[in-house]
Structure formats: structure tokens, C-alpha cells
Amino acid sequence: MILAMLSGGLDSVTMVYLLLKQGHKLHIHHVEIENEEHRALAETVAVNNVLEYFKQNNLTNFTFTTSKITCPTINGNFLYDATVTNLFAGFICSNEKKIKSVAIGATKEDSQFSNTTRFSQGRQILEMFTTAEKIYPIKEFTKRELYDMLPDELKNLFWSCRTPKYENNYAIKCDRCFTCGQMKKLEILQKDLFLG
């Protein structure tokens, strides 16, 4: 079994979609990360919408859990996503021995960060809990290639903006964060997200 970490963003949504299409049995986990970026609500709604899409399209070979953490800002810094996701991945793997691999949605563009402190710190945290292998199923693809692989309906369900605004029951992309800049450059459309 593969543990697949699902944030609700383009990369992780496409990764999970492809793994399910390939017939893998997954345990999908979403970490709701509360920090000063205020993206937790939008990501959680996106994850729920994506899971509903999978169920409606017979991609059901998975179990799902979720967790929540509030990360304080100290001297202008808060915990990296990699730190948080590896912490929860390690905990899950240490309690579910059927999991042999942890799938992370890192793309071709993300390879430039592979030697950074946040990646090595994340790896060390995971290894404290488990010997499960960390895998990167989409590392050969660019974000644009991932977007083009998605069915049209899924293209409208992911959420990648890191600092959304919330108005009239919608999450609205900021058009200022790093990820919004990437999406704009790659001509990837991210629609405002109805929060239900």
C-alpha cells in the first residue's frame, strides 16, 4: 500500500489521480495546516471535492484520513509543509505496517529544492518513524504537463494559491504568491473556489 499525501494542489491531485488510474491501493492523507497564509480552508474544500470526484468516477481503491495542526509564526517563520507532512506520514506509517511507500507530489520544477534544509529536515523526520520508502511519482513532469493530464472536471477542483482571500463564500486566488506566479507563467487557470 502507498501512503499518498494530498494537499489539494495541482501536484498532489494529479499524483493521486495517476496512482489510482494505475491501479495502486492508496491510503490518502490530508493535513490541514493552519498558519498565517490562511489557506487551510481552501485546501480542505479542494481535497473534499477531489475525493468526491474520485468516488463518482470509480477511482475508489483508497482509504482516507485527515489531521490538523496549527503552526505559530516565530521570528517571521513557520513550519514548512515538508516538515509537517513528513511528521504525519511517519506517524501513519509507524501505525500501519501495510504501507511500504510514501508518495510525495514533487515535480520536475521542484528538483531545484531537493538539497535544501526543508527537504533534508523532512526526510530526517520521516526516517525517525519508519523505513517506508519515499517516492516521487511525478518528478519527471512539469506542472504544465500535469495540468494537461487531468480530466477537465478535475482541472476545476484543485487549489494551489498559498495566500487566498475569502469573499462571499468563495476562496479567491491572490495573484501575488509564488504559486500564483507559476500558474500565470504556465497559463494554468485556477478558478475561484466555492466553499459550499
| Principal-axes shape call | globular
User: What kind of assembly state do the chains in view correspond to?
Assistant: single chain
Distance between the termini: 32 Å
Percent strand: 15-25%
Topology as a string of helices (H) and strands (E): EHEHEHEHEHHEEHE
Tally of helical segments: 7
| Strand order in space, largest sheet | 3-2-1-4-5
| Helix and strand composition category | alpha/beta
Q: Could you give a short account of the major beta sheet?
A: 5 strands, parallel
* Helix content, binned percent: 25-40%
Write down the Rg: 16 Å
- Low-pLDDT runs of 5+ residues are none
**Mean residue pLDDT:** 92
**What is the β-strand count?**
8
Write a brief structural summary.
The chain is 39% helix and 18% strand. It has helices at 10-21, 40-56, 81-95, 117-129, 143-149, 152-155, 178-185, and strands at 2-5, 26-34, 62-70, 101-103, 133-135, 165-167, 170-172, 193-194. The strands form two sheets. A five-stranded parallel β-sheet has the order 3-2-1-4-5, with helices on both faces.
What does this protein structure show overall?
The chain is of the alpha/beta class. Helices cover 39% and strands 18% of the residues. It is built from seven helices and eight strands, in the order βαβαβαβαβααββαβ. The chain has a five-stranded parallel β-sheet with strand order 3-2-1-4-5, sandwiched between helices. Strands 6-7-8 form a three-stranded antiparallel β-sheet, with helices on one face. A hairpin with a 2-residue loop joins β6 and β7. The longest helix is centred in the N-terminal third of the chain and has 17 residues, at 40-56. It is globular and about 45 Å long.
